[in-house]
Amino acid sequence: MELEKAYDPKIVEDKIYKKWQDGGYFKPEINPDGDPFCIIMPPPNANGALHIGHAVFVTLEDIMTRYARMQGKAALWLPGADHAGFETQVVFEKKLEKEGKSRFGIERDELYKMMYDFTQENKIGMENQLRKLGASCDWDRTKFTLDEDIKKIVYKTFKNLYDDGLVYRAKKSINWCVKHQTTLSDLEIKYALKKDPLYYIKYGPLTLATVRPETKFGDTAVAVNPNDARYKEYIGKEIEIETVLGKAKIKVIADDYVDPKFGTGVVKITPAHDPNDFEMALRHGLEVREVIDQYGKMNEKAGPYAGMKIDEARAIVVLDMQKKGLIEKIDQDYTHSVATCYKCGRTIEPRVLEQWFVAVNKKGQKTGKNLAKDAIQAVKDKKVQFVTKKFEKIYNHWMSNIRDWCISRQIVWGIQIPAYYCDSCGKDNPIVSEIKPSKCPKCGSSNLTQDSDVFDTWFSSGQWPFAALKTTGDFDKFYPTQIMETAWDILFFWVARMIMIGLYETDKVPFEKVYIHGLVRDQDRQKMSKSKGNVIDPLGIAEQYGTDAVRMALVFGSSAGNDTSISEDKIRGMRNFANKLWNISRFVLIAQNENSKLKTQNSKSQLIIQNLTDKDAWILKELDHTVKKVTKYFDNFKYSQAGEEIYEFVWHKFADIYLEKAKDQLANEKLKENTQAILLSVLKDTLKILHPIMPFVTEEIWSKLPGNKEMLIVESWKK
User: Fold this and answer.
1) Cβ of 519: how many Cβ atoms within 10 Å?
2) DSSP bridge pairs for 366
3) In what side-by-side order are the strands of the sheet with 511-517?
4) pLDDT tens for each residue of 378-409
5) CB 3.0–4.6 Å: which of 29, 201, 406, 679 could bond 588 by disulfide?
6) What is the spatial distance between Cα 653 and Cα 230, in angstroms, rounded to a whole number?
7) β-sheet bridge partners, residue 507
8) Is residue 293 part of a domain?
9) Distance (Å, whole) CA 632 – CA 643
10) Looking at the structure, do residues 445 and 554 belong to the same domain, yes or no?
């Protein structure tokens, strides 16, 4: 058989992918007796098209899976999609805004159905895009994080934690996004440096500094450091102060949290609107007085300022204080770190609300398990190993300082919390149940209402590995999985939580190794963004240059944990490499057509080990050296080095040196047959080691070679 003169990915890729999928080659059952190998796909958000970052994870995980499959392992790459809770609701809200609508004007059930249909439509498109990128995952096992069987497992985990005293409902200081009207976890906060005026306000005999004079109506104390000699005489006393609403009295407390070097060393304590102040209020038994509502407006406790938005109230309060001589001075150039919503960028407004929390650093009452400590110990004991050690250090530092996790969200989209309230017993007595109870176990009332909040999406996705495998019937064989590959920016959002919850629910780590990849940057190492105009559409560029070229370009010059750069020039260069391989293969095939013996050959000809020329011996030695190095690189997750090694061998050793020599040898009748056999053998082994990275072009060439009865995707790896 001969190859076409030019390689056309558009003709080849869909045809090859269909053969793989229809032939069942993506199933672990293709190697029924092989050792289990499993990757659970980090489920892409079902709220839009894939971007270049998705192409990175698809390429890396597909390389891992194809390599394992060629090693004879029962390789399962289980695909899925994430409902993505808050993230998807934000995307859908933008869609509604463009249509002149708001989610607040739509009934809950109707909005949920609209969003479900939206994600299902996106899910289909997203899965087709994954196929285009060559993902060899088992589509018959695909899961969605809102599948009913997944939800049942999430409910069970929640109840187990609740019964163990590790899930609780409490009134605490939380992060509130005024725009999106929901709580956010600490990880969903983005800190930004901001320049604000620092106001020095007179509080009776004391002067304190604050950037938030508008919250003074919620002050329930002023605080100093207990070791600050300047203010010892005031500690524990009530001082009389003048305010814009008239005279008042306020207590002076001492707390080690106060920094004597900040401002004057005196701070006002507003427990309802500052998380650190709230903690001080707990320590000192202070009143918590809310003066800003959920919409970011002053409430009735602010007197004449009620109804004003925060910034408006601040300006007017300062003006009125100046009129009364209560402002000592204003520092206009004060720079500080401000918590903002990671999606909309608006300043977070701390509020004290009753929410659901996971106690991450507490012993379970029944199990004795400690989520954070057990997860730290698993890494210490090397039950989970990070491919890049720097992330292990980051993980340990974060886990050692972790705080309780707020898991309730005031949104519609997600898994509704399985807690029920009876009107007679009140909200202080929630009934946590995997299914809705028919009546209240305390009073017998059948009038039960389910909590309207939904889980933080990371609570459900933190159960993804064991939940997905349990619902496909693969848990016993494939859990724990061999590796979790994901981006560094969700190390704490997701990886840490999978380890914590996985250990809690299964007594096993969810995966043995963690491979973290970096961001994709442009050729100037700049972060890709639409505003910069440097975003590369992976599907669009793959359509132009071929999927293999995109995959090789993403691998080339990258390493675990580090950002990788990509450009159209780089992808074009890898397209040229695919063409080079194609032309080499055409040459080898044309040479084979002159030797009928080799047309049915399925392994090295005996002629190869006889009468070798110097160049024959050299290319076989170089091939053996290359295969061993590539195998070692794959075993150690060094895919860039593997790609570079193969590139060097194919282009500069096989093509530039041996093929040129082979032309002379093919013209020599004594050397011809041996040279033909060597060419074919070297090409076959080259296609094998390149297949995990560039699967389409290698599979197409393989199908044209004499003697190949099985597809390359399951050909045994040469060692």
Assistant:
1) 16
2) none
3) 385-386, 511-517, 481-487
4) 999 999 999 988 999 999 999 999 999 999 99
5) 679
6) 79
7) none
8) yes
9) 12
10) no
Q: How many degrees, rounded to 5, is the angle at CA 160 between CA 426 and CA 492?
A: 105
Q: What is the DSSP letter of 43?
A: P
Q: What is the DSSP letter of 286?
A: -
Q: Do residues 558 and 646 share a domain?
A: yes
CATH of the domain at 680: 1.10.730.10
Q: Which of 157, 162, 165 lies closest to 505 in space, CA to CA? A: 157
Does some domain include residue 537?
A: no
Side-chain half-sphere exposure of 100, counting CA atoms within 13 A: 0
Residues 581 and 439 in one domain: no
Q: State the first-to-last Cα distance of the chain, in angstroms, to the nearest integer.
A: 28
Same domain, 565 and 709: yes
Tens digits of per-residue pLDDT, 72-113? 999 999 999 999 999 999 999 999 999 999 888 899 999 999
Task: Name the residue type at position 351.
Answer: R
Q: Domain span at residue 650? A: 548-714
Instruction: Give the total number of structural domains in the chain.
Output: 3
> How far is residue 561's CA from residue 387's CA, in Å, rounded to a whole number?
9
| Residue with token string 């496909």 | 472
Same domain, 447 and 575: no
The total of other beta-carbon atoms located within 10 Å of residue 183's CB is 24
Name the residue among 387, 639, 370 with its Cα closest to residue 513: 387
Give every CB contact of residue 176 below 8 A, 6+ residues apart in sequence: 182, 183, 184, 294, 348, 349, 350, 351, 353
Look at strands 511-517 and 385-386 and give their pairing: parallel
The reported pTM is 0.91
The type of residue at 690 is: L
**Count of Cβ atoms closer than 10 Å to residue 251 Cβ:** 17
Instruction: Say yes or no to pLDDT of 445 above 50.
Output: yes
Residue from 570, 387, 373 nearest 482 by CA: 387
Q: Which residues are registered as beta bridge partners of 341? A: 189
530 has a pLDDT exceeding 50 = no
Indicate the pairing of strand 36-40 with strand 74-78. Answer: parallel
Coil, helix or strand at residue 93: helix
